[in-house]
């Protein structure tokens, strides 16, 4: 799949004269393209997940009294990550994808270096915010770069493949964090983040050309940005699916924020086996994303994602039932099985919701991706914070959070589609 790059014109242009395209795509082949973009997103994932095993060491180093406060290392990162996204899109629509991504990676590296020399927990939290600000460039630009080249079900398939590679990272990230701790200090966890950022920078610089077509560059002005945001907000499909995606992101963030306490220090006391449990759940998400990439072309984004979301809600209710039946402490194998099933199902919704939200906005892909990424990340971080801070030594907050947020997401999708669920559209 090394077809010529096909810039996506504004909606009005599609009914008029065809847009000229370059003779050939001068960038990497399909597999390498997916790998590079997935690595851009992986910087975000590894910056969260490989730090989880270091929570006890960080708590001891800085004297953090309440273990729940360690979750702030996840949530402040996501706040910085979410807020910065609203900037990267408009800037990349004006200046191009390459310089903006490389600038973001430089900010990320600076935040990582500050974390390595943090003298206090407050300093470490500030460094995590800076890390999040820098990592946001990869989240925004990865989606925009894919949207520059692909559309419709093809875009959904590509995003699923990228998400599959991206989701492999959580399977191994805690193990990497544990290995870094074995070197003697939690600081080495941040060293591994710095190395990954350096690899991403070199690979992207060497192989990925500019994907933004010259005629789709937009002026870098507040007026142009506001106009693009207004266009996004007037699009029922974009707002609806972005809201549903944000709610489901809250489920993931709630689980990630409290996973170390659930599996390690607060409930099941797995110790060194924590990365295995975390990786098993992440593996279920990766498997589902691979299946989604293969079948979405046949079934369409809407039927597949709607069915996955409906099943997710039902399993979420079952998850609450399991928690209540064992007074918040079910057998580990049973809890892992139900949790992995829910993570499997959520992976049929999230990549497709992301593609559906952006599909009508090809002419403003960078700004739209930026604004919607900001919105979904902040909504997800806040919902995840509420779930994580509710941790009480049981699995009930996770189950209740999944069932509640999943149910709200299903209602939002029903509103978005005017009550017509499970039906495919022209492209979805």
Say how many strands there are. 0
Number of domains: 1
CATH topology name, in short, is Growth Hormone, Chain: A
CATH class: Mainly Alpha
Backbone structural class: mainly alpha
Global outline = globular
Q: What can you tell me about this protein's structure?
A:
With 428 residues, the chain is mainly α. It has one domain (27-416): Growth Hormone, Chain: A (Up-down Bundle). The protein has 15 helices and no strands. It has helices spanning 30-49, 55-62, 72-95, 97-116, 121-149, 152-182, 187-207, 222-233, 236-265, 274-299, 301-325, 332-346, 350-358, 365-389, 396-416. The radius of gyration is 21 Å and the shape is globular.
Helix-strand blueprint:
Elements: H1 30-49, H2 55-62, H3 72-95, H4 97-116, H5 121-149, H6 152-182, H7 187-207, H8 222-233, H9 236-265, H10 274-299, H11 301-325, H12 332-346, H13 350-358, H14 365-389, H15 396-416
Brief write-up:
With 428 residues, this protein is mainly α. The chain contains 15 helices and no strands. The protein has a single domain (27-416), classed as Growth Hormone, Chain: A (Up-down Bundle).
């Amino acid at each position: 799949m090394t077809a010529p790059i096909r810039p996506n014109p504004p909606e009005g242009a599609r009914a008029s004269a065809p847009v000229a395209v370059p003779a050939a795509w001068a960038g990497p082949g399909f597999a390498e393209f997916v790998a590079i973009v997935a690595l851009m997103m992986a910087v975000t994932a590894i910056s969260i997940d490989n730090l989880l095993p270091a929570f006890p060491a960080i708590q001891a180093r800085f004297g953090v009294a309440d273990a729940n406060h360690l979750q702030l290392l996840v949530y402040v990162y996501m706040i910085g990550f979410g807020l910065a996204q609203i900037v990267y899109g408009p800037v990349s629509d004006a200046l191009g994808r390459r310089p903006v991504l490389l600038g973001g990676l430089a900010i990320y590296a600076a935040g990582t270096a500050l974390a390595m020399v943090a003298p206090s927990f407050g300093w470490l939290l500030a460094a995590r915010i800076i890390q999040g600000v820098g990592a946001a460039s990869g989240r925004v630009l990865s989606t925009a770069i894919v949207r520059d080249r692909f559309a419709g079900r093809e875009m959904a398939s590509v995003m699923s493949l990228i998400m599959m590679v991206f989701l492999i990272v959580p399977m191994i990230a805690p193990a990497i964090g544990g290995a870094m701790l074995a070197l003697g200090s939690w600081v080495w966890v941040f060293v591994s983040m710095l190395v990954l950022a350096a690899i991403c920078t070199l690979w992207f610089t060497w192989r990925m050309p500019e994907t933004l077509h010259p005629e789709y560059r937009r002026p870098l002005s507040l007026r142009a940005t506001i106009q693009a945001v207004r266009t996004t907000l007037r699009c029922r499909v974009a707002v609806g699916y972005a809201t549903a995606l944000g709610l489901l992101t809250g489920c993931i963030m709630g689980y990630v924020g409290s996973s170390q306490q659930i599996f390690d220090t607060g409930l099941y006391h797995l110790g060194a086996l924590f990365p295995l449990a975390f990786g098993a759940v992440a593996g279920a998400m990766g498997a589902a994303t691979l299946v989604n990439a293969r079948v979405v072309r046949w079934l369409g984004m809407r039927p597949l994602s709607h069915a996955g979301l409906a099943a997710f809600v039902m399993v979420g209710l079952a998850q609450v039932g399991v928690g209540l039946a064992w007074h918040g402490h079910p057998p580990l194998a049973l809890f892992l099985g139900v949790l992995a099933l829910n993570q499997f199902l959520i992976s049929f919704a999230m990549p497709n919701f992301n593609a559906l939200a952006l599909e009508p906005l090809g002419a403003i892909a960078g700004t739209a991706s930026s604004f919607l990424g900001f919105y979904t990340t902040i909504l997800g971080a806040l919902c995840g914070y509420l779930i994580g801070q509710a941790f009480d030594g049981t699995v009930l907050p996770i189950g209740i959070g999944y069932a509640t947020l999943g149910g709200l997401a299903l209602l939002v999708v029903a509103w978005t589609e005017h009550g017509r669920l499970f039906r495919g559209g022209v492209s979805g």
